Amino acid sequence: MQNLTELPQDLPIPQYDGGCNHLLGMRLPQVNLISTRSRKLDLSNIKSKVVFYCYPMTGQPSVPIPDGWDQIPGARGCTPQSCAFRDHYAELQELGVEVYGISTQDTSYQQEAVERLHLPFELLSDAAFEFTTSLQLPTFEVDGKRLIKRLTLIADEGKIAKVFYPVFPPDKNAQEVIKWLKQNLV
User: Fold this and answer.
1) What DSSP string runs through 139-171?
2) Quick one: CA dihedral 1, 120, 8, 54, positive or negative?
3) For 82, how many CA atoms within 13 A lie in the half-sphere containing its CB?
4) Overall pTM surpassing 0.90 (yes/no)
């Protein structure tokens, strides 16, 4: 059985491709995403400080990951990234920051991850690609599925204040976010 919580040592490092250069300063779009708490969340109505970490897809222990997944730069690491945000969640809350994970997986798939990983925050489903399309987020395809490339957005009062892209290693992203928040928004 595959261990989804640990990163292989030889993962390829994603290269900067400019895919998020346009995001800084943009307003959060008026899109409704379904959360793992079965509520619709209009992202344009979030006025607090918020972190959205966007990830390709979480694996499930009993489901094989796509062939060649570990060789796609930036693909592997969704579970370690989610666990890192879980482990640093209290610190992020102390900073007055909300946290959401976003992927193009459907809500029921995401709910399994929330339960298995004991995530204290909601995951949002962008299965219809409304968020991805409205912000023109970078994507890639594997096994006929379109997935979001790993990136993290910090918004303050509805405006994107920081973009982390590419994110590597994914298990250190939460710490990078906290460091930036302490230096810039707190």
Assistant:
1) EEEETTEEEEPPEEEEEETTEEEEEE-S--SGG
2) positive
3) 31
4) yes
